[in-house]
Amino acid sequence: MNIAVDDAIGDRLNRLVKLAMDTGEAASLEEAERMFAEYRLSVSVGADIAHSPTLQAILLTIVNSARRSFLGGVEVDVAVDSPLLVPFSRHENLGAAVRALGGRITTRISTATPLICLGNVPDKAENPIAIRATFDGWTGGILPLSQSAKRLDEKQEFAPAGVLAGALAVTEAFQFLRRNQPLAGRREAGLSLWRPELSWQDSASRGPQIDRLPSSLWLVGLGNLGQAYLWTLGMLPYASPSDVQLVLQDFDVLAPSNESTSLLTTADVVGIHKTRAMAQWAQQRGFRSAIIERRFDANFRVRPDEPSLALCGVDNALARAALEDVGFGRIIEAGLGGGTADFLGFRTHVFPGARKARDVWKPAAQSDERRIDLPAYEKLSAAGLDRCGLTRLAGRTVGAPFVGAIAGAVVIAEALRAANGAHAYDLIDGHLRDLTHRTVIPAINPAPFNPGATPVEL
């Protein structure tokens, strides 16, 4: 096989299905796909979702990320005529929104699948695990359904906390099916987007109501992370969406594999430049946008009339090292793990900070070692894919949309704090196998920064 054939396989490969190839548990790509086709998820929703934008953000994030990961399908028991309260789409009710995202509406939830519950539902279920997603203010979390007495108040609405809670619930259900976390579905987990160094159940973690939203942003990279930023940004209650100015920068074209990780990629936009597909999404949301279709480097300067707040979601170390060289006032960047052991990891940085971007992203020697001796790759070799092609394919990262969604919520929360003159964090580093063991480093005396802001819709 030649490089074109290798690229064709890589471009259609579901980046989460690749996990089964890279652990050696699947003897072929086809076996890995069959394995993930057995993964199914059920969601039970209380009637109070009709009155809570944040519960709706939880539900839509669950459906959007899970349908890309649980390839056997996502079934949802929800009142389909509940009005849509989040500015996700032009759909008038939740049923239409759930269907548009790939969920299946049902009134009879399976008892054989992992179950996620939100809102006022019974606190007992016969499923192998039953997880409750909950929120209050800037805090989102999960707990076993049987512990619903510890549910958060769910009174202070904040859509990014809904994105966080929904993605955490999907992560937990996925870990249960993968059997890599014995406590999955039987523990509590959560995070405060206001004070991530605190316990998510601490009353001080709830955070304040805010009245301003960021209005001017430059997005570098429009894959898993960049689209996760836009997903959460699109949930925010802008009083005047036309006040929002976005610069969208990427050089690549959407491939079928992007649909497995990227929350705004659907089959109908595959083959289109990422910038143009996301600009179309921005227009539908009511935002203004400009596009740049080239790699990010230090060979330009940000103009005074362009966004000075950058959100970076690329995995190229050279591009990340150049982030402070072009004149942005503040940069918020995130990275995800990409291997079988670390794909559940995420890390965010804010620059300027205690360390320079060029110090964080110094050139490092890259190991060329790839596990092409694993059964799935040996089968591809037997089918004619040469060693170079195998190495290239094995080198593609494992990726999960629910991890990107969590990192995206953390990054947008950082932008929201900036827009409201609040504190910042140099580093937030966590792993979803156990989120309690995270590293959070507050910024010390950050320089004053005004990214541009516009009012919240009241």
UniProtKB/TrEMBL annotation:
Protein name: UBA/ThiF-type NAD/FAD binding fold containing protein
Organism: Nitratireductor aquibiodomus RA22
